[in-house]
């Protein structure tokens, strides 16, 4: 995978079934909503990277779970992981590379400008908001 940047994304639902999203503060896709994530740092595995990225972008603690089918994007090799929130009272707060962070339901998701392919990909994995 020479020339590709290793990245991760965290697919996180709250106890109500809402999906955690961040509005990207930087390109690619600045201003679009997506799952929290970012680059894998040297020496990190995907699980460690996604836990760090979710914390940096939302202030939330998660435990990394199963790996989803890797998704490719130009210049990036993205691995998404299903994550579980640590604790039940969780309010995301935008930080690091995020302009905003929120748990969203299906109706709200339908109104957001999301990164290309996000909604169909999550739908294919049956990981859209459950409410």
From TrEMBL:
<dbReference type="Pfam" id="PF00293">
    <property type="entry name" value="NUDIX"/>
</dbReference>
<comment type="similarity">
    <text>Belongs to the Nudix hydrolase family.</text>
</comment>
<dbReference type="InterPro" id="IPR015797">
    <property type="entry name" value="NUDIX_hydrolase-like_dom_sf"/>
</dbReference>
<dbReference type="InterPro" id="IPR020476">
    <property type="entry name" value="Nudix_hydrolase"/>
</dbReference>
<dbReference type="InterPro" id="IPR000086">
    <property type="entry name" value="NUDIX_hydrolase_dom"/>
</dbReference>
<feature type="domain" description="Nudix hydrolase">
    <location>
        <begin position="3"/>
        <end position="127"/>
    </location>
</feature>
<dbReference type="GO" id="GO:0016787">
    <property type="term" value="F:hydrolase activity"/>
</dbReference>
<dbReference type="InterPro" id="IPR020084">
    <property type="entry name" value="NUDIX_hydrolase_CS"/>
</dbReference>
<protein>
    <submittedName>
        <fullName>ADP-ribose pyrophosphatase YjhB, NUDIX family</fullName>
    </submittedName>
</protein>
<keyword id="KW-0378">Hydrolase</keyword>
């Amino acid at each position: 995978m020479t020339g590709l940047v290793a990245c991760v994304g965290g697919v996180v639902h709250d106890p109500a079934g809402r999906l955690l999203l961040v509005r990207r503060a930087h390109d690619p896709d600045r201003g679009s909503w997506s799952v929290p994530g970012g680059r894998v740092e040297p020496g990190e595995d995907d699980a460690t990277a996604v836990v760090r990225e979710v914390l940096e972008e939302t202030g939330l603690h998660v435990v990394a779970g199963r790996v989803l089918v890797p998704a490719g994007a130009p210049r990036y090799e993205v691995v998404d992981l299903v994550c579980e929130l640590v604790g039940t009272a969780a309010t995301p707060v935008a930080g690091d590379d995020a302009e905003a962070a929120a748990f969203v339901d299906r109706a709200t998701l339908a109104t957001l400008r999301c990164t290309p392919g996000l909604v169909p990909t999550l739908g294919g994995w049956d990981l859209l908001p459950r409410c």
